[in-house]
Design goal:
The protein is an alpha+beta fold. It contains ten helices and eleven strands. The structure holds L-homoserine.
Length: 315
């Protein structure tokens, strides 16, 4: 097997849940995302040479960092007689609800797979990413990692066995995401959810997932908007996000189809018909945060259709 020596990759942020699809829907966005440089070493194991941009928050222990957990799983699976060293550049904060741990893990497995001449398929690599999510968030959830790895809009139809479906996205579907400068850990955001939900809520939730699928397939923007309702997580998690309902209303008033919490929060996303509306929606949500004197960052992009990519070694 011919193995290249060094590579630089990018893996995108992701919006999980998408209101109605708790733990089963997700999509990738163009920015933010993580960059990772990987170099093959003769020595076995995965070494973290440096992590930039995390303010020292992420674990340096390769058994605990999402990127290195996934890479080590990969190396074990292929019974590698070599290892690697990584430099991780975090370009989004942890605890943002934008799939930060997932982006690092996706970047890691994508990089090692490219250096191993694409030895494994994306489907084969997905279990490594679930292990990484388990290490990072104490929950092996596929919504962020599958969206990040495959790109596009995904439905996790089944966890056992894993069955990931990619859903076509209408051409003019844009997303505005705001990341308020507040940390919400996925673990904490999962703990506040009720263990059981009323039957009526379950029915409405699954009906909205169906509505979302039909809306995406038909390019019916109004139906997509009507389906952006969450009975499972939003009612509980919204209290962790200052100004959440005000941002949601401001997004609607600025023309958004609808929106909700991105993943486990605190980021808030809104889907929009067209680029201009998406920019207006991002501005409207930011105005709420500015009025509340909470720092925030807005990202506007289409759904990212390709997932991770190789970057030139230096730019
Ligand atoms: N679906 C997860 C949650 C997001 O909302 O807790 C992290 O994968």
């Amino acid at each position: 097997m011919k193995i290249g020596n060094k590579i630089r990759v990018f893996a995108p942020a992701t919006v999980a849940n998408v209101a109605c699809g708790f733990d089963v829907l997700g999509f990738a966005i163009d920015k933010p995302g993580d960059e990772l440089i990987m170099e093959i070493t003769k020595q076995k194991g995965v070494e973290i040479a440096d992590i930039e941009g995390d303010e020292g928050m992420l674990p340096r222990d390769p058994k605990k960092n999402s990127a290195t957990v996934a890479i080590q799983d990969y190396l074990d699976f292929i019974k590698a007689d070599f290892g690697c060293r990584i430099w991780l550049k975090k370009m989004m904060p942890s605890g943002s609800g934008l799939g930060s741990s997932a982006a690092s893990a996706v970047a890691g497995v994508y990089a090692i797979n490219m250096l191993c001449n694409e030895k494994l398929t994306k489907e084969e690599m997905l279990p490594f990413l679930l292990d990484a999510e388990k290490a990072a968030c104490d929950a092996a959830i596929a919504d962020n990692v599958a969206a990040g790895l495959f790109g596009g809009f995904i439905l996790v139809r089944s966890y056992e066995p894993l069955d990931i479906l990619q859903i076509p996205v209408p051409e003019e579907l844009w997303c505005a995401v705001i990341h308020p400068d507040v940390v919400v850990l996925t673990k904490d955001a999962r703990e506040i959810l009720p263990k059981e939900i009323p039957l009526a809520h379950s029915l409405r939730q699954s009906a909205n997932v169906g509505g979302m699928m039909v809306g995406l397939l038909r390019g019916d923007y109004d139906l997509i908007g009507r389906s952006l309702v969450d009975y499972i997580a939003e009612p509980y998690r919204s209290k962790l996000i200052p100004g959440f309902y005000e941002m949601k209303q401001a997004a609607k008033d600025a023309g958004a189809l609808g929106g909700s919490i991105s993943g486990s929060g605190p980021s808030v996303f809104a889907l929009c018909h067209g680029k201009e509306i998406a920019h207006n929606v991002g501005d409207a949500m930011k105005k709420i945060m500015d009025e509340m004197k909470i720092g925030s960052e807005v990202y506007v992009s289409k759904v990212n259709s390709h997932g991770p990519k190789v970057l030139p070694m230096a730019d």
